[in-house]
Design goal:
The protein has 183 residues and is mostly helical. It has helices at 14-37, 41-68, 91-95, 99-125, 129-182; strands spanning 70-76, 82-88. A hairpin with a 5-residue loop joins β1 (70-76) and β2. α1 packs parallel to α4 (99-125). The chain starts with 13 loop residues before the first helix and ends with a helix. This is Golgi apparatus membrane protein TVP23.
């Protein structure tokens, strides 16, 4: 790292950033280019969905933790209800995360979903219902990560606000308590 550059000029985790984008780009590129080279729908479906599933897994379990300090998952409790679970780094660690890494994470997440929507519209306009199935699966995986990480980020912000409120209440309480103990 060049010490003359201002902090935040480079990606802190370039390999993670690469793989975060690689599977997204791979799934989109394969889907788009496969029509030129492959006549077999099953191969196109399997490879595109496999790349999208790898992207889903990498984002959910690796790049989300490293680039934005967030992790989410969904469990079924004993009552059969779906329960969202969230983890985030502590506030000091979150504040130290690289802004470029975070920017790449969020923008690539949203732009990928937009790209799948556009490809879905093209499939509809060309009356290719089978290709809409591929787009639907890929879009579902993409949106699942968007929803999961957005809820996780909101939960982390809520925890920060609760921590700040609790800290403020404790300080006010200790100030009042020390004022009365002097008297």
């Amino acid at each position: 790292m060049d010490l003359n550059q201002p902090p935040g000029e480079n990606y802190a985790n370039p390999k993670t950033c690469l793989f975060h984008v690689l599977f997204k780009a791979g799934a989109l590129a394969f889907y788009i280019l496969s029509a030129l080279f492959i006549d077999n729908f099953v191969i196109i479906f399997v490879v595109t969905v496999l790349l999208a599933a790898l992207d889903f897994w990498v984002v959910k379990n690796v790049s989300g933790r490293i680039l934005v300090g967030l992790r989410w998952w969904n469990e079924i409790n004993d009552l059969g209800e779906s329960v969202w679970k969230f983890e985030s780094l502590d506030q000091e660690s979150l504040a130290r995360l690289n802004k470029k890494d975070s920017w790449l994470f969020w923008w690539s997440l949203y732009l990928t979903a937009i790209a799948w929507v556009v490809l879905g519209i093209f499939s509809l306009l060309r009356f290719q219902a089978d290709y809409c199935l591929i787009v639907g699966v890929c879009l579902t995986l993409s949106i699942a990560n968007i929803v999961g990480f957005t809820k996780c980020r909101k939960d982390a912000k809520k925890q920060l606000q609760q921590f700040a409120s609790q800290t403020l209440a404790n300080r006010v309480s200790s100030t009042i308590q020390s004022a009365f103990s002097v008297v």
